[in-house]
Amino acid sequence: MVGFSRGGDDAAPVPGARILIVAARFNAGITSMLIEGALSAVSSLGAQATVIEVPGALEIACAAAIALEAAKKSGVAYDGVIALGCVIRGETYHFEIVANESARALSDLSVSMRLPLGNGILTVESEQQAITRADPKQGNKGADAALAAVSLIRLAREAGAKP
Questions:
Q1: How far apart are CA 74 and CA 26, in angstroms?
Q2: Which of 26, 42, 44, 106 could form a disulfide with 49 if both were Cys (CB 3.0 to 4.6 A apart)?
Q3: In this predicted structure, what is the pLDDT of residue 8?
Q4: Rounded mean pLDDT of the chain?
Q5: Which of 118, 113, 51, 115 is nearest to 79 (CA)?
Q6: Which residues are catalytic?
Q7: In the prediction, which pLDDT does 160 show?
Q8: CA-to-CA separations, 108 to 43, 112, 123, in angstroms, rounded
């Protein structure tokens, strides 16, 4: 979710919307700030959020698919998903694999399911960059991911694509 631009309808409430937040535990201090920002944004828009945690960014898409299917079977489907995590570049190629494949899996999930999704997985060069982006008092990328998901939920509702 690079360069999300806040638009005029960002403050418009989405009453009754149910949003699933899937957060990676890896780099937990950073992720906790992302969760804080996302929950605040979701709450301010009249929506409800459920948070589940997974080991790392690569597990987010699979966990989201499992939770979405279970919720739909129970008759209480989610309207959208917010993916949160932090991948900090290290000395190996592993950074590229995790960053690229987590983004690809989320895009595949979102498009195949017509699922409103906000990707708030940070891919950064350093812990300081991550803190600056995740901190609700600074970059607040958790809130940006929430606003992206909510924007797509609004679009789906307006188009009649989701109940």
A1: 30
A2: 42
A3: 59
A4: 92
A5: 115
A6: 94
A7: 84
A8: 27, 6, 19
